[in-house]
Amino acid sequence: MRIFVTGASGFVGSAVVENLIAAGHEVLALARSDASAAALLAAGALVHRGDLDDRQNLRAGAREADGIIHTAFNHDFSRYAQSCAEDAEVIAALGDAIAGTQKPLVVTSGLGLLAGGMQVTEQDMPDFGPNAMPRVATERAVAELVGQGLNVSLMRLPPSVHGKGDHGFVPILIGIARQTGISAYIGDGNNAWPAVHRFDAARAYVRAVEVAMPGSVYHAVAETGIAFREIAGVIGKRLGIPTVSKTADAATDHFGWFTHFAKLDCPAASDITRRQLDWSPTEAGLLADIDQDCYFDQ
User: Fold this and answer.
1) Distance from first CA to last CA of the chain, Å, rounded?
2) Rounded to an integer, what distance in angstroms lies between the CA atom of residue 41 and that of residue 49?
3) SS3 for 212-249, per residue?
4) Quick one: which H or E segment has residue 196?
5) CA of 226: how far to CAs of 55, 190, 221, 264, 289, in Å?
6) Inter-residue contact 296 to 238 (CB < 8 Å)
7) Beta-bridge partner residues of 196
8) Quick count: other Cβ atoms within 10 Å of Cβ 67?
9) Residues 66 and 28 sit within 8 Å (Cβ to Cβ)
10) Does the pLDDT value for residue 213 go beyond 70?
């Protein structure tokens, strides 16, 4: 198939491109910059120049493909609510492009939406009410397209998608630890982060677009839940600084805007995903992966 990929030069998207091509698919990759276009061409993809803000151009790229994988998202947390609303608009535009067809569209969401301390499955849904997290807009937009009979599925990613080149939550924690001189966790530190290596996640996306099951929800989860205290411990050991507990009140001063994510407790199962996609993670686990020089040489 020819697969249109958004976020194709990103940390997850570039792995998706690599795995799609390895599986024998043709990739049409959305590229905003010359540098991204050059990297994608070198990886063996075709390039569709444009960005998410040009909805007409976005639809044009999607219409040229047999399927779509949407991994792009603006991670500027200073405008998080706006980014989430914009993501819903992008999903609606991609839905327009596949209306009247059964072309598969796989959309990215986050397991942090379901944080509550209880292990969740693919059958659990986030709160869609007035107090919901802004990112719920993504899942609401997908539900609307599924309700219209479109072939759309949802891939939920865990708080840590790890691997060489990671610029997500763990590097942010490392930066906070370097700045403050301590590697902290909150309370007993037993709040759990599920995790997956970027290449394992990429293989799940490839299988999802190939299987093309309308309305399916997948969890790209290799490890159900790792205690935040253990993540902080690896960081503290690597940096040679103390690993300490912070009270809930003190955590805000220490973690700042990241406090919400440091508190996340969202253990998640992936049994349905593994069965439906015939998917088995094979890459290194989170603690082993982050205990490498590449995480601390940045």
Assistant:
1) 37
2) 12
3) CCCCCEEECCCEEEEEHHHHHHHHHHHHCCCEEEECHH
4) strand 192-197
5) 39, 8, 11, 11, 13
6) yes
7) 161
8) 23
9) no
10) yes
d(CA 205, CA 219): 10
DSSP state of 28: E
Which single residue is written with the structure tokens 């992966």? 289
Q: Tokens 């301390």 label which residue?
A: 117
Please report where in the chains the tokens 């290194």 appear, as a residue: 284
List the alpha helices (DSSP H) in the chain: 11-22, 34-43, 55-63, 80-98, 136-147, 169-180, 198-211, 228-239, 248-255, 259-262, 271-277, 286-290
Residues in Cβ contact with 209 at an 8 Å cutoff, skipping those fewer than 6 apart: 1, 3, 20, 67, 68, 69, 104, 106
Q: Give the model's pLDDT for residue 298.
A: 67
- The distance of Cα 14 from the centroid of its chain, to the nearest Å, equals 12
* Cα–Cα distance measured from residue 234 to residue 174, given in angstroms and rounded to the nearest whole number: 10
> Is 28 in contact with 182 (CB distance < 8 Å)?
no
pLDDT in tens, 258-289: 999 999 999 999 999 999 999 999 999 999 99
CA distances from 79 to 27, 85, 100, 135, 168 (A): 31, 10, 34, 12, 17
Are the beta carbons of 184 and 245 closer than 8 angstroms?
A: yes
